[in-house]
Design goal:
Keywords: ATP-binding, Coiled coil, Hydrolase, Membrane, Metal-binding, Metalloprotease, Nucleotide-binding, Protease, Transmembrane, Transmembrane helix, Zinc. Belongs to the AAA ATPase family. In the C-terminal section; belongs to the peptidase M41 family. One of its GO terms (biological process) is proteolysis. It comes from Marininema mesophilum. The protein has 11 helices and 5 strands, in the order H-H-E-H-E-H-E-H-H-E-H-E-H-H-H-H. By secondary structure, the chain is of the alpha/beta class. The longest helix has 22 residues. It binds adenosine-5'-triphosphate. The site of adenosine-5'-triphosphate has 19 residues, from helix 3, helix 8 and helix 10. Adenosine-5'-triphosphate (ATP) binds next to helix 3, helix 8 and helix 10.
Length: about 270
Protein backbone atom coordinates (compact mmCIF):
# COMPACT_ATOMS: atom_id res chain seq x y z
CA UNK A 1 0.00 0.00 0.00
CA UNK A 2 1.55 3.29 -1.12
CA UNK A 3 1.69 6.09 1.38
CA UNK A 4 -0.59 8.89 0.24
CA UNK A 5 0.09 12.35 1.49
CA UNK A 6 -3.08 13.93 2.77
CA UNK A 7 -4.01 16.98 0.76
CA UNK A 8 -6.11 19.77 2.19
CA UNK A 9 -7.56 22.62 0.26
CA UNK A 10 -7.69 25.17 3.01
CA UNK A 11 -5.52 28.10 4.10
CA UNK A 12 -3.07 26.94 6.80
CA UNK A 13 -3.36 28.59 10.17
CA UNK A 14 0.37 29.17 10.60
CA UNK A 15 2.09 32.50 10.16
CA UNK A 16 5.71 33.61 9.80
CA UNK A 17 5.70 34.58 13.50
CA UNK A 18 5.37 30.89 14.36
CA UNK A 19 8.76 30.24 12.78
CA UNK A 20 11.80 31.02 14.91
CA UNK A 21 14.78 32.73 13.28
CA UNK A 22 15.14 32.39 9.48
CA UNK A 23 14.85 36.17 9.25
CA UNK A 24 16.56 36.56 5.89
CA UNK A 25 14.75 33.60 4.32
CA UNK A 26 11.41 34.94 5.51
CA UNK A 27 12.13 38.39 4.03
CA UNK A 28 13.17 36.88 0.70
CA UNK A 29 10.11 34.69 0.63
CA UNK A 30 7.72 37.53 1.49
CA UNK A 31 9.27 39.66 -1.22
CA UNK A 32 8.58 36.95 -3.79
CA UNK A 33 5.08 36.41 -2.43
CA UNK A 34 4.22 40.08 -2.81
CA UNK A 35 4.32 39.40 -6.54
CA UNK A 36 1.53 36.88 -6.07
CA UNK A 37 -0.51 39.35 -4.04
CA UNK A 38 -0.12 42.14 -6.62
CA UNK A 39 -0.56 40.02 -9.70
CA UNK A 40 -3.01 42.37 -11.45
CA UNK A 41 -0.28 44.99 -11.41
CA UNK A 42 2.17 42.48 -12.86
CA UNK A 43 -0.27 41.76 -15.63
CA UNK A 44 -0.61 45.48 -16.43
CA UNK A 45 3.16 45.82 -16.68
CA UNK A 46 3.50 42.61 -18.66
CA UNK A 47 5.73 41.07 -15.98
CA UNK A 48 5.65 37.31 -15.92
CA UNK A 49 4.46 35.76 -12.66
CA UNK A 50 6.71 33.93 -10.25
CA UNK A 51 5.73 30.34 -10.78
CA UNK A 52 8.12 28.42 -8.61
CA UNK A 53 10.12 28.98 -5.44
CA UNK A 54 12.73 26.50 -4.29
CA UNK A 55 13.48 26.16 -0.58
CA UNK A 56 16.69 24.32 0.09
CA UNK A 57 18.46 23.39 3.28
CA UNK A 58 19.13 20.60 5.76
CA UNK A 59 16.28 18.44 7.13
CA UNK A 60 14.11 19.86 9.88
CA UNK A 61 14.95 23.51 9.36
CA UNK A 62 11.37 24.62 8.76
CA UNK A 63 10.92 24.42 4.98
CA UNK A 64 7.44 22.95 5.33
CA UNK A 65 6.57 25.60 7.91
CA UNK A 66 7.77 28.31 5.52
CA UNK A 67 5.56 26.96 2.72
CA UNK A 68 2.54 26.88 5.02
CA UNK A 69 3.26 30.39 6.27
CA UNK A 70 3.52 31.50 2.62
CA UNK A 71 0.00 30.23 2.00
CA UNK A 72 -1.25 31.97 5.13
CA UNK A 73 0.47 35.25 4.15
CA UNK A 74 -1.06 35.25 0.67
CA UNK A 75 -4.43 33.83 1.75
CA UNK A 76 -3.96 30.91 -0.63
CA UNK A 77 -5.29 27.39 -0.39
CA UNK A 78 -2.50 24.92 0.30
CA UNK A 79 -2.14 21.65 -1.55
CA UNK A 80 0.74 19.40 -0.64
CA UNK A 81 2.57 16.35 -1.90
CA UNK A 82 6.01 14.81 -1.62
CA UNK A 83 8.41 13.35 -4.15
CA UNK A 84 8.38 10.12 -2.15
CA UNK A 85 4.71 9.72 -3.05
CA UNK A 86 5.80 9.05 -6.64
CA UNK A 87 8.23 6.25 -5.87
CA UNK A 88 7.45 2.97 -7.65
CA UNK A 89 4.42 4.34 -9.43
CA UNK A 90 3.46 2.82 -12.75
CA UNK A 91 4.53 4.79 -15.80
CA UNK A 92 2.03 7.53 -16.50
CA UNK A 93 0.44 7.48 -13.05
CA UNK A 94 2.88 10.08 -11.74
CA UNK A 95 2.09 12.48 -14.59
CA UNK A 96 -1.60 11.94 -13.99
CA UNK A 97 -1.13 12.77 -10.31
CA UNK A 98 0.65 16.00 -11.18
CA UNK A 99 -2.27 16.99 -13.42
CA UNK A 100 -4.69 16.22 -10.60
CA UNK A 101 -2.62 18.23 -8.16
CA UNK A 102 -2.93 21.38 -10.28
CA UNK A 103 -6.64 20.75 -10.87
CA UNK A 104 -7.14 20.23 -7.17
CA UNK A 105 -5.34 23.49 -6.41
CA UNK A 106 -7.58 25.42 -8.80
CA UNK A 107 -10.88 23.80 -7.77
CA UNK A 108 -9.91 24.05 -4.10
CA UNK A 109 -9.28 27.78 -4.45
CA UNK A 110 -12.56 28.27 -6.31
CA UNK A 111 -14.47 26.33 -3.69
CA UNK A 112 -12.92 28.38 -0.88
CA UNK A 113 -13.39 31.60 -2.87
CA UNK A 114 -9.67 32.37 -2.88
CA UNK A 115 -7.69 33.96 -5.69
CA UNK A 116 -4.60 31.83 -5.34
CA UNK A 117 -3.31 28.39 -4.50
CA UNK A 118 0.09 27.18 -3.37
CA UNK A 119 1.21 23.69 -4.30
CA UNK A 120 3.95 22.44 -1.99
CA UNK A 121 6.18 19.63 -3.25
CA UNK A 122 8.48 18.29 -0.55
CA UNK A 123 11.51 16.20 -1.61
CA UNK A 124 11.37 17.51 -5.18
CA UNK A 125 14.74 15.82 -5.83
CA UNK A 126 12.99 12.44 -6.04
CA UNK A 127 11.20 13.40 -9.25
CA UNK A 128 13.50 16.21 -10.33
CA UNK A 129 16.93 14.61 -10.04
CA UNK A 130 19.45 15.45 -12.75
CA UNK A 131 19.11 13.54 -16.03
CA UNK A 132 22.36 11.86 -16.90
CA UNK A 133 23.01 10.86 -20.50
CA UNK A 134 20.56 8.37 -21.94
CA UNK A 135 20.07 6.41 -18.73
CA UNK A 136 16.56 5.17 -18.05
CA UNK A 137 14.64 7.83 -16.26
CA UNK A 138 11.89 6.58 -14.07
CA UNK A 139 10.40 9.98 -13.36
CA UNK A 140 10.75 11.64 -16.78
CA UNK A 141 7.04 11.81 -17.51
CA UNK A 142 6.23 13.06 -14.04
CA UNK A 143 8.83 15.80 -14.23
CA UNK A 144 7.79 16.77 -17.76
CA UNK A 145 4.19 17.06 -16.65
CA UNK A 146 5.23 19.32 -13.77
CA UNK A 147 7.17 21.54 -16.17
CA UNK A 148 4.25 21.63 -18.61
CA UNK A 149 1.85 22.64 -15.85
CA UNK A 150 4.21 25.36 -14.66
CA UNK A 151 4.72 26.65 -18.20
CA UNK A 152 0.94 27.00 -18.43
CA UNK A 153 0.70 29.44 -15.51
CA UNK A 154 -0.07 33.02 -16.61
CA UNK A 155 -1.07 36.22 -14.78
CA UNK A 156 -4.49 36.43 -16.39
CA UNK A 157 -5.88 33.21 -14.92
CA UNK A 158 -8.71 33.39 -12.38
CA UNK A 159 -6.73 31.42 -9.88
CA UNK A 160 -3.03 32.13 -9.57
CA UNK A 161 -1.01 29.01 -8.80
CA UNK A 162 2.43 29.08 -7.22
CA UNK A 163 4.57 26.00 -6.71
CA UNK A 164 6.90 25.87 -3.72
CA UNK A 165 9.33 22.96 -3.69
CA UNK A 166 11.71 21.84 -0.98
CA UNK A 167 14.91 19.86 -1.12
CA UNK A 168 18.04 19.18 0.83
CA UNK A 169 19.81 18.10 -2.35
CA UNK A 170 19.73 21.25 -4.47
CA UNK A 171 22.96 20.24 -6.24
CA UNK A 172 21.18 17.13 -7.57
CA UNK A 173 18.34 18.94 -9.34
CA UNK A 174 17.82 18.84 -13.08
CA UNK A 175 18.72 22.12 -14.77
CA UNK A 176 15.36 22.11 -16.56
CA UNK A 177 13.71 22.73 -13.20
CA UNK A 178 15.86 25.72 -12.40
CA UNK A 179 15.37 27.59 -15.66
CA UNK A 180 13.75 31.08 -15.70
CA UNK A 181 9.99 30.78 -15.41
CA UNK A 182 10.26 27.60 -13.37
CA UNK A 183 11.93 27.36 -9.96
CA UNK A 184 13.91 30.52 -10.51
CA UNK A 185 13.70 31.90 -6.96
CA UNK A 186 15.98 30.05 -4.59
CA UNK A 187 15.78 30.57 -0.88
CA UNK A 188 18.06 28.76 1.50
CA UNK A 189 16.72 27.70 4.85
CA UNK A 190 19.75 26.99 7.00
CA UNK A 191 20.42 25.61 10.46
CA UNK A 192 19.61 28.19 13.14
CA UNK A 193 22.36 30.25 14.78
CA UNK A 194 22.37 30.80 18.54
CA UNK A 195 19.87 33.66 18.51
CA UNK A 196 17.52 31.68 16.28
CA UNK A 197 17.88 28.58 18.45
CA UNK A 198 16.89 30.65 21.44
CA UNK A 199 13.82 31.95 19.59
CA UNK A 200 12.81 28.44 18.54
CA UNK A 201 13.26 27.14 22.09
CA UNK A 202 11.09 29.99 23.38
CA UNK A 203 8.40 29.15 20.83
CA UNK A 204 8.33 25.49 21.78
CA UNK A 205 8.39 26.01 25.56
CA UNK A 206 5.72 28.73 25.54
CA UNK A 207 2.99 26.26 26.50
CA UNK A 208 5.11 24.05 28.72
CA UNK A 209 5.57 24.37 32.51
CA UNK A 210 9.18 25.59 32.68
CA UNK A 211 10.73 25.92 36.13
CA UNK A 212 11.67 29.41 37.16
CA UNK A 213 15.28 30.18 36.40
CA UNK A 214 15.59 27.86 33.42
CA UNK A 215 18.23 29.36 31.17
CA UNK A 216 17.04 29.24 27.57
CA UNK A 217 20.13 31.19 26.50
CA UNK A 218 22.34 28.53 28.03
CA UNK A 219 20.41 25.83 26.17
CA UNK A 220 20.79 27.76 22.93
CA UNK A 221 24.55 27.74 23.46
CA UNK A 222 24.61 24.02 24.19
CA UNK A 223 22.59 23.05 21.13
CA UNK A 224 25.04 24.17 18.44
CA UNK A 225 24.21 22.38 15.17
CA UNK A 226 20.65 21.45 16.18
CA UNK A 227 17.87 21.95 13.64
CA UNK A 228 14.48 23.42 14.52
CA UNK A 229 13.00 19.93 14.47
CA UNK A 230 15.64 18.70 16.92
CA UNK A 231 14.99 21.66 19.21
CA UNK A 232 11.28 20.88 19.16
CA UNK A 233 12.05 17.27 19.97
CA UNK A 234 14.34 18.37 22.82
CA UNK A 235 11.56 20.36 24.51
CA UNK A 236 9.19 17.43 24.14
CA UNK A 237 11.68 14.94 25.60
CA UNK A 238 12.40 17.29 28.52
CA UNK A 239 8.68 17.40 29.32
CA UNK A 240 8.60 13.60 29.29
CA UNK A 241 11.56 13.45 31.72
CA UNK A 242 9.78 15.92 34.02
CA UNK A 243 6.61 13.83 33.94
CA UNK A 244 8.53 10.64 34.73
CA UNK A 245 10.15 12.43 37.65
CA UNK A 246 6.68 13.43 38.85
CA UNK A 247 7.91 16.99 38.78
CA UNK A 248 5.28 19.70 38.13
CA UNK A 249 7.80 21.73 36.20
CA UNK A 250 10.53 21.13 33.63
CA UNK A 251 13.89 21.77 35.27
CA UNK A 252 17.24 22.53 33.69
CA UNK A 253 18.40 18.95 34.35
CA UNK A 254 15.48 17.56 32.33
CA UNK A 255 16.48 19.77 29.46
CA UNK A 256 20.13 18.69 29.72
CA UNK A 257 19.09 15.03 29.73
CA UNK A 258 16.95 15.73 26.67
CA UNK A 259 19.88 17.28 24.81
CA UNK A 260 21.81 14.05 25.33
CA UNK A 261 18.82 11.99 24.25
CA UNK A 262 18.36 13.93 21.00
CA UNK A 263 22.08 13.79 20.26
CA UNK A 264 22.22 10.03 21.00
CA UNK A 265 19.14 9.46 18.86
CA UNK A 266 20.85 11.11 15.94
CA UNK A 267 23.92 8.96 16.49
CA UNK A 268 21.88 5.76 16.59
CA UNK A 269 20.05 6.78 13.41
CA UNK A 270 23.36 7.40 11.67
CA UNK A 271 24.80 4.09 12.83
CA UNK A 272 21.70 2.29 11.65
CA UNK A 273 22.11 3.66 8.16
CA UNK A 274 25.83 2.91 7.91
P1 LIG B 1 12.41 18.08 6.03
O1 LIG B 1 13.49 18.57 5.13
O2 LIG B 1 12.85 16.94 6.92
O3 LIG B 1 11.09 17.85 5.35
P2 LIG B 1 11.62 20.70 6.96
O4 LIG B 1 12.74 21.63 6.72
O5 LIG B 1 10.45 20.74 6.04
O6 LIG B 1 12.17 19.22 7.13
P3 LIG B 1 9.68 21.18 8.98
O7 LIG B 1 8.85 19.98 8.64
O8 LIG B 1 9.19 22.50 8.56
O9 LIG B 1 11.15 20.96 8.46
O10 LIG B 1 9.96 21.20 10.55
C1 LIG B 1 9.67 20.08 11.37
C2 LIG B 1 9.26 20.56 12.75
O11 LIG B 1 10.39 21.16 13.39
C3 LIG B 1 8.21 21.64 12.73
O12 LIG B 1 6.92 21.10 12.75
C4 LIG B 1 8.53 22.43 13.99
O13 LIG B 1 7.97 21.82 15.12
C5 LIG B 1 10.03 22.32 14.10
N1 LIG B 1 10.75 23.47 13.49
C6 LIG B 1 11.65 23.41 12.49
N2 LIG B 1 12.14 24.62 12.21
C7 LIG B 1 11.53 25.48 13.05
C8 LIG B 1 11.63 26.90 13.25
N3 LIG B 1 12.46 27.66 12.53
N4 LIG B 1 10.83 27.44 14.19
C9 LIG B 1 10.01 26.69 14.94
N5 LIG B 1 9.88 25.35 14.81
C10 LIG B 1 10.65 24.75 13.90
Amino acid sequence: QKKRTRRKDSVPNLSFENIGGQQRSKEELKEALDFLIHRTKLHDYGIRPIKGILLSGPPGTGKTLMAKAAAHYTDSVFVTTSGSEFVEMYVGVGAQRIRELFQEARTGAKRSKKNSAIIFIDEIDVIGGRREGSQHREYDQTLNQLLTEMDGITTDQDIQVLVIAATNRKDMLDFALLRPGRFDRHISVDLPDKKARSMILHLHTKNKPLAEGVEIEQLATETFGFSGAQLESLTNEAAIYAMRDKSDVIRQEHLSQAIDKVMMGEKTDREATQ
